[in-house]
Amino acid sequence: MSNWYEHKDCEKTPIISSRVRLARNLQKYSFSVQQDNESIRTMIEEICAPLSNDFDFTLPTKDDMITRLSMVESHDISPEVLKFGTERPFALLKSNSANVMLGEEDHIRIQAVAAGDDLDKAYEKANEIDNKLDQIINYAYHKDLGYHTSCPTNTGTGLRASFMMHIPMIEKSGGLANLVRHLSKLGLTVRGIYGEGSKPCGSIYQVSNQVTLGKNETEIIEEIKTVGSQLIESERVLLQSAFTTSQLEIEDVIHRALGLLSHARRLTLNEAMESLSAIRVGKLSGIIKESSLDMPIYCVMINIQPGNLQRIAGKHLSENDILIERAKYLREIFKR
Is 156 helix (H, G, I), strand (E, B) or coil? Predict the structure, then answer.
């Protein structure tokens, strides 16, 4: 089964991916943050037992930090898992472009991701899994308030819908602050590449709903879709304007990025992400017409993160070795 970020639909528009996440908890257990490791392990085993024929299971050992880190970088699990430490048990259940995270902030996090602009597909997959689980698990649910969740902001539908977007022109135009303020008034938020508390990198941001109570699933998804369309248009207009006034400068930035990625011997994550961001602009705008690159830019971005570099290398790497391995990986990708 291929990952969503390996799909060519990631390259079509500023929207890299569409995600729907559902937060659920079991009625018979306390929230995860109140449970000890043994209780979490018992709960995970209880949930997994009736699902063994429907999902592929990942159960990292307590010492396997590289696996945990690479799963965060690939958006399979949230950074929250790393905060619990390597002693904390968890499980990841994967099935057909969707997964179920067990033992995180909430007992169950159902996540479906579609490449590119397709929130409806993501919701359909997440809802399908939710309905299956609802038949075998007693969710913590209140008829007036909706699903009980560890964080009050998720109470209600428990649904977070989001677009991961590459918006370098909006970022560089200085319009990001106004965008954040505008979306906040609509009950939406803009976050970094790995969600709440993370920093943007390579001009990539997550746009998602903040409000899950008082709105149904369809209303939340339609709001995100409307905002996504507006941001696509804003990015297009800004890029067109920049080409009109500064085409040579833009081409220079893109080709310098190609040169750096093709020849550098050591690269920081920020240097690499900024260069890959420029390459993505080059591909979307048509400046880069031919490329030996046979994978989406965002797939490359995931593979150069520290955890995934160590996963690919099959061993722990020092900070300096990570810089060297990142440059080596990118030279092989962009060799001309």
Answer: strand
Which residue type, as a one-letter code, is found at position 177? A
Q: What angle do CA 10, 274, 312 make, to 5 degrees?
A: 65
Q: Compute φ and ψ for 100, nearest 5 degrees.
A: -125, 120
Print pLDDT tens along the chain (336 aa).
478 999 999 999 999 999 999 999 999 988 888 888 889 889 988 888 888 777 887 777 666 788 889 989 998 888 877 777 677 788 888 877 789 999 888 999 999 999 999 999 999 999 999 998 999 889 999 888 889 988 888 889 999 999 999 999 999 998 888 999 999 988 899 998 887 767 789 999 999 998 888 889 999 999 999 999 999 999 999 999 999 999 999 999 999 999 999 999 999 999 999 999 999 999 988 888 766 577 899 999 999 999 999 999 999 999 999 999 999 999 999 886
Whether the CB-CB separation of 29 and 139 falls below 8 Å is answered with no
Cα atoms in the 13 Å half-sphere on the side-chain side of 213:
14
Place of tokens 């570099």: 309
- Looking at the chain, which runs of residues are DSSP E strands? 15-24, 56-58, 91-95, 98-102, 108-115, 141-142, 146-147, 159-166, 188-191, 204-209
Q: How many residues does the chain have?
A: 336
User: Shortest CA distance to 17 belongs to which of 272, 297, 330?
Assistant: 297
What is the distance between the alpha carbons of residues 281 and 314, in angstroms, rounded to a whole number? 32
Give the residue extent of every domain in the chain: 235-334
Contact between 159 and 212 under an 8 Å Cβ cutoff? The reply is yes
Question: Which DSSP letter does residue 186 get?
Answer: T
Residue 65 CA: distances (Å) to CA of 60, 83, 94, 199, 254: 9, 12, 19, 21, 35
Residue with token string 């990198």: 201
Closest CA to 247 of 204, 292, 286, 291: 286
Q: Is the dihedral of CA 217, 6, 10, 203 positive or negative?
A: positive
139 by DSSP, 3-state: which?
strand
